[in-house]
Hints:
Blueprint: H1 2-19, H2 25-33, H3 46-61, H4 66-79, H5 87-97, H6 102-112, H7 119-122, H8 125-130, H9 135-147, H10 153-173, H11 182-189, H12 194-203, H13 211-218, H14 230-239, H15 244-253, H16 258-272, H17 280-285
Helix pairs in contact: 1-3, 1-15, 1-16, 2-15, 3-4, 4-5, 5-6, 9-10, 10-11, 10-16, 12-14, 13-14, 14-16, 15-16
Amino acid sequence: xxxxxxxxxxxxxxxxxxxxxxxxxxxxxxxxxxxxxxxxxxxxxxxxxxxxxxxxxxxxxxxxxxxxxxxxxxxxxxxxxxxxxxxxxxxxxxxxxxxxxxxxxxxxxxxxxxxxxxxxxxxxxxxxxxxxxxxxxxxxxxxxxxxxxxxxxxxxxxxxxxxxxxxxxxxxxxxxxxxxxxxxxxxxxxxxxxxxxxxxxxxxxxxxxxxxxxxxxxxxxxxxxxxxxxxxxxxxxxxxxxxxxxxxxxxxxxxxxxxxxxxxxxxxxxxxxxxxxxxxxxxxxxxxxxxxx
Length: 293
């Protein structure tokens, strides 16, 4: 749970930091290139709220139990429905709060095909932090964490990829020497999906690729889908594993769904980077997190 708490800290910092750059693209890019910190307070979004719900369930049960996770999601949504939930998530969580079974509510979204969005991925890093060193457990529990809201396999694939990357980063942060790199580790444990294919594309990008080029090639969440969000986020994380601040600036420069990409990268890099890497000034700017655990 120490790893989970560190992961949630990094995820929430990324979430709140990225959310502050939802301004016109030219204005955002200029501020990022100047390394101009947004004015405080930095308000976190549903990315953080749902990640905390996962962390609570892990803390209580030592596993992701979908029935309990659905109740945790619904409870936190009811308390603060204005945290930036997307339309589909808002509808689903309102149904859960009214007592609908999560499996039925998730499967009913998007004309019965379920969500393939990036919402399962944005909150999945704590799963990898908790089960670090056990890829099979990471895959199983990440799928369960996503299935409560994302019945579509692509939505679940995004969560699996992020959790695997976080688990790998936790080993690096603990001083272990993984036998494979981040991309190799993630790809080796994933089954076939469009999201996996796009992650493989990210792994093949040349070392000199610029952030804007990577975002153009992979997407950075413009479609709010797992397949156009997670590959870029893993690419950004892989390039800045030892520098949390630089990871955030680089990820935000990709624009797109910047609170979510920064949340994903923040949760991963916080686990791999040195303990002192989370900047105190940023933590002070982010609004205080709710108590949990």
